[in-house]
Amino acid sequence: MRHGKYRFLVGAMAAPLALYAIFVISPYVQAFYLAFTDWNGISNEANPVGLANFTKLWSDPLFLAALRNNGLLLLVVPLATIVLALFFSAATRGTRVYRVVYFFPQLLSVAIIAVLWQFVYTPNSGLLNGFLNAVGLSSWKQSWLAEPDLALWCVMAAMIWSAVGFYVVLFSAAMESIPVELMEAALIDGASSGAIFRRITLPLIFESVQVAFIYLGIAALDGFALVQIMTVGPGGPDNSTEVMGLGLWRNAFTYGKFGYASAMGVAMFLLTLSLAALLLRATRREQVELA
């Protein structure tokens, strides 16, 4: 009976694992190989260049600008998204209608979100400048995506808006799993709402927050789609919105430098892996168990 179970498991998993190896693992392996070559994406020959592609990364001003911008995204987007999601989750606890409203951006593709926010930031007829003009703050009107000091922040606002709804639902589900008796006991003891959140709610949903930090950190190291569609250049103005994913795409499909683009991809992979490991270690804590 036991041998039959193992044969069934092997038979059931063989096809999915084969497809995963072909379509996921194999491209990764090829990217690692191509990162050490000068392949142009067309010819059958790929001449080995050793570590030249990786050495070039650290003298490439566009890559360094992208690394700096991705670093800023990494600092701002996860923290702002999680703070807002925790606030909305706590404020709308027990109210499902608001969660549907917050979750709405998840129903839209990234391309649609980018186009919508382009209209928001349009200088002459955009929603943001129109609102500022309506409330008498016309002096604050800007060409938002054309200002080097503002463009990346505009992209971050779109990223945060598009992500908050998912984490509101995630954190709300985690909060609903907390026994009501704990909250009632804390209220009877005279604890304030803020104290209950800090000492009971947050520790009990910390694993969800930890997962959110990792996923949002990975998203912050990407940002390609929004930058590609929303910004001038794309990546402008003055490389103020350049990100690593955009540099990879440009080198591969515009300049035909697939070897160099693969080196960028490998660097992104290692940065993402290191980030996930660091976040897991930095946020590691003893699990709070309910009796």
UniProtKB/TrEMBL annotation:
<feature type="transmembrane region" description="Helical">
    <location>
        <begin position="258"/>
        <end position="280"/>
    </location>
</feature>
<protein>
    <submittedName>
        <fullName>Sugar ABC transporter permease</fullName>
    </submittedName>
</protein>
<feature type="transmembrane region" description="Helical">
    <location>
        <begin position="204"/>
        <end position="230"/>
    </location>
</feature>
<feature type="transmembrane region" description="Helical">
    <location>
        <begin position="71"/>
        <end position="88"/>
    </location>
</feature>
<keyword id="KW-0472">Membrane</keyword>
<feature type="transmembrane region" description="Helical">
    <location>
        <begin position="100"/>
        <end position="120"/>
    </location>
</feature>
<keyword id="KW-0813">Transport</keyword>
<keyword id="KW-1003">Cell membrane</keyword>
<feature type="transmembrane region" description="Helical">
    <location>
        <begin position="150"/>
        <end position="173"/>
    </location>
</feature>
<keyword id="KW-1133">Transmembrane helix</keyword>
<dbReference type="Pfam" id="PF00528">
    <property type="entry name" value="BPD_transp_1"/>
</dbReference>
<feature type="domain" description="ABC transmembrane type-1">
    <location>
        <begin position="67"/>
        <end position="279"/>
    </location>
</feature>
<dbReference type="GO" id="GO:0005886">
    <property type="term" value="C:plasma membrane"/>
</dbReference>
<keyword id="KW-0812">Transmembrane</keyword>
<dbReference type="InterPro" id="IPR000515">
    <property type="entry name" value="MetI-like"/>
</dbReference>
<dbReference type="GO" id="GO:0055085">
    <property type="term" value="P:transmembrane transport"/>
</dbReference>
<dbReference type="InterPro" id="IPR051393">
    <property type="entry name" value="ABC_transporter_permease"/>
</dbReference>
<comment type="similarity">
    <text>Belongs to the binding-protein-dependent transport system permease family.</text>
</comment>
<dbReference type="InterPro" id="IPR035906">
    <property type="entry name" value="MetI-like_sf"/>
</dbReference>
